[in-house]
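Q: I'm writing a short explainer about UspA domain-containing protein for a general audience and would like to include a description of its predicted shape. Could you first generate the structure from this sequence?
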Amino acid sequence: MAIDTVLLAVGPMDTVRAEELAETVLEIAAPLEATVVIGHAFTEAEYEEFRENLGFDERVEDVDPTAVAARRPPVPDLEERLSAAGVETEVRGALGDVGTEVVELARAVDADRLIVGGRRRSPAEKAVLGSVSQEIILAAPCPVTYYRDLDVME
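A: Of course. Here's the predicted structure. Afterward I'll give you a sentence or two in plain language.
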């Protein structure tokens, strides 16, 4: 199976591990000359919380998720790091249930590999709070590389 497109799904917690995620992506994408799609799915509540900080006047009903994703950390930093390494990048945004939207994004870009970060949670926390990463892993249409950062706290 050739790897032509890698989807790197990120969220706001990934800002602290952007460098490590970029290195992980480069290990896969650079030698294969694969395109990396940096995807950021966010909820309506997250958009409303950050829209003024991002300089958007539009309400959630009128938003272009890709325009928001392109300006939402850690996307600009990741795009810069990957481009500097000679990897072709594209940014995609999605609005809705994060797990569902990431899986749909993987389908939409025909991803051959999906990279997703996560944090350490106990089984009880996962049962009560759920796990977006686990939801993505179980529903993804392609192989998933899971980057677990034990240093990232909730």
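A: For your explainer, you could say: Helices lie at 18-32, 44-54, 65-71, 75-84, 98-108, 123-129, 132-139.
Q: Perfect, that's easy to follow.
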